[in-house]
């Protein structure tokens, strides 16, 4: 690839902590900019598991600019819409995806893909140009005006020009650069667990959403012929609920089973399926809100900087957009990192404020009613709206998708064809 023409600047040595969506997207743009990138991932191999995710608005554009849109299209999940069902599994209201190509996406995006497939696509696009080290994490670092030294979990250390914390919602790098005692989490009082169970004949390509009194919800969506995803969602503000996500998986599963035991519908099947699922993931729904995205030669990217939560519909898109902006500024100012990092903050901040602002806790609580009566009202209202084609019309007539009219800046790296 080489550096841009006429530039005699030294390539930067960049250490990226975290081989997820944002970390790999950064590796793609920075190696195209001629820099030396090392990605360290704590997991022993590529973390290609996880839930179904979607691309929207500027996120679709970011993938297009990477030249990966066809690869993504080849892996899309067929999800035709969302049904709100009763305890017998009968749909009370169904909102179909907006496939018109105009306006905004409904609850289902036209770009639905499994997180693992997106991770693999990014990996295939970067593995020949960036160095990947698995089973290792950044335990600590120190920096001065000229370099940052990373200390790794295997006892080794290395010298770099820049350290990027792309290490997710629970980022350790973020903890190291934020002032002591500052809590970056904006909590909405909602928790979620998800896992896979074997697919059965009645699992269709419509996502089922089942509401249960006590602020509980079960979602079922099926992404391939043999697997079905299960999501348990719980509205609860308790120490126990917040702490459970750090407990051993067996304890997590006991917690979720106990909260949903009497829930009806296919709850038994789903709880039984926890035991054989290839993975089980439990998390509190939070946003990461901090004024500090960098300190010296250390910068945060993706969820570590600005997790928008699954309810924004823009978490993955936000990570791809953030990587695009950060890499663009570094590639344009490789000899002046303070300017590059200040620009990253200035350019990306309005977009992050927009996507985080879309998450309204009052609206979320409406979707997790406490009583059967409130559930009946929600379903009746939704059914009437669907009968009148309101979601469909609202989606088609909307002038913009989530993320507003914020424009993606110019291409981070002019590639030699």
Automatic annotation (TrEMBL):
SUPFAM superfamilies: FAD/NAD(P)-binding domain. Keywords: Monooxygenase, Oxidoreductase. The keyword Oxidoreductase applies. InterPro entries: FAD-bd (IPR002938), FAD/NAD-bd_sf (IPR036188), FAD_aromatic-hydroxylase (IPR051704). Signal peptide: none annotated. It comes from the Bacteria. Pfam families: FAD_binding_3. Residues 13-328 form the FAD-binding domain. GO terms for molecular function: monooxygenase activity. This is FAD-dependent monooxygenase. The lineage of its organism: Bacteria, Bacillati, Actinomycetota, Actinomycetes, Streptosporangiales.
